[in-house]
Amino acid sequence: MLSILKMLCTRGYWRNMFQWDTWRLGWIALRRAHKDKRSRKYLRRLMLMLLAPLLAPLCVLLLFTPGGAIGSLIYLFRVNRRKAQEALLLKQNPPNRPPPSPPSEALRKEVADLALLHAVLADRAGSENFLRTKTLPEGIEIITRRLQLDILRERGLYERLGSIERDLMLLPDGHWSEEDIERLALALEPLRVLRWVLRTDHFLPSVGDCLVLNYKLAHQIANDPASVYEGEDFISIDPLNQAFREAEHIMNRCFAEAVIRDLMQPDDDQQRDWCQKVVDEYRDSEHKDPTLNGVIVSRAEDYMVLRARMFAARRRAVLIWIAKRMYGDLRPPEDLEVFFLRSPAPTAAQTSPP
Predict the structure, then answer these.
(1) DSSP type of residue 263
(2) What share of the chain is helix, strand, coil (3-state, %, to 5)?
(3) Which parts of the chain are beta strand (E)?
(4) What are 262-270's contacts with CB under 8 Å, separation 24+?
(5) Do 224 and 243 share a domain, yes or no?
(6) Of 196, 228, 260, which residue constitutes the final position of a domain?
């Protein structure tokens, strides 16, 4: 009862309820529920979220009954005991590095500036893609470039842009090359992570559930730049580490699959043997193998395996960068630049297990 009431009082609950990914992933889970216990778990959580507003009044009434009061006391006792156990476990097995200091206002603004830059350029990529594939009626004027330049200037970001970003922004609407569109569309994955870090989104879907580019992520911020600057929330190190481990797991799983399919080349025979062992372990395992758009890796199409490996490697790199900035291991960059715009995609050696 108390857990339901507590959930309803959090801002993250209401944001998740109105987040497109919540319902998209629910549909995927529904289609896989008969063969994947992970999907059934997601559906149970989604059902609880849907029913929570209806159950809340009943929970309040039950709190004033003897049974409800006893149940609440038991719940509080279990919560406190779990916290005590976690504290004891942490004391016995301290992390390699203590948690970083709370993020400063300057760090949050730095990440918000990056999120806005990625949103603006990814939104521009969506506009350019539209102009390349659609014929506009006469008299229609595209003003995406002008509006986005105004946004960057209002926030004091235009003068800090890297040379590549500035040159792209200054090109007239409809003059981006197909290569430019493809490169900047991929800014949507770092943007997804940055939105989550800033708690604009309280849920970070798995890499395998984010392989279809969703320009809504960028368009929302481009239309409302203040949304990433509002509030004081910032991700803590524990969920950041968890997201890192998940991204690394999918990266390595897809690398192993790609090697066995001869889509990528291993460094040596030892690495190929490792890849074969991983593929054999997950082959046709519906309840263990990561899913890529609702299909397990061992049955996914080649291009999806390669795409997921690239997205996972990029998510992993962004999460490492965020952690290093939280700890102060990296200095703030002087120029405002998009992730991966200047560097090639990670090689097999860079994305394979040690």
Answers:
(1) S
(2) 65, 0, 30
(3) 291-292, 295-296
(4) 263/302, 263/305, 263/306, 264/306, 264/348, 265/348, 266/348, 266/352, 267/348, 267/349, 267/352
(5) no
(6) 228
In a domain, 345, yes or no: yes
SS3 readout for 235-256: CCHHHHHHHHHHHHHHHHHHHH
Q: What is the pLDDT along the chain (354 residues), one digit of tens a residue?
A: 445 555 556 666 666 666 767 767 777 777 777 777 777 777 777 777 777 776 667 666 666 667 656 666 666 667 677 767 656 655 555 556 788 999 999 999 999 999 999 999 999 999 999 888 877 666 676 788 899 999 999 999 999 999 999 999 999 998 999 999 999 999 999 999 999 999 988 889 999 988 988 898 899 999 999 999 988 899 999 999 999 999 999 999 999 999 999 999 999 999 999 999 999 999 877 788 999 988 999 999 999 999 999 999 999 999 999 999 999 999 998 899 999 998 654 433 344 333
How many residues does the structure list for the chain? 354
In three-state secondary structure terms, 222 is helix
Q: Are residues 109 and 223 in the same domain?
A: yes
Whether residue 190 is found in the same domain as residue 255: no
| CB contact at 8 A, 299 and 285 | no
Residue at which a domain ends, from 209, 228, 247: 228
Burial class for 270, CB neighbours closer than 10 Å (0-12, 13-18, 19+): exposed
Instruction: Find the helix or strand (DSSP H, E) in which 180 lies.
Output: helix 178-185
Side-chain-side CA neighbours of residue 239 (13 Å): 13
Nearest to 173 by CA among 149, 194, 143: 143
Distance of CA 269 to the CA centre of its chain: 34
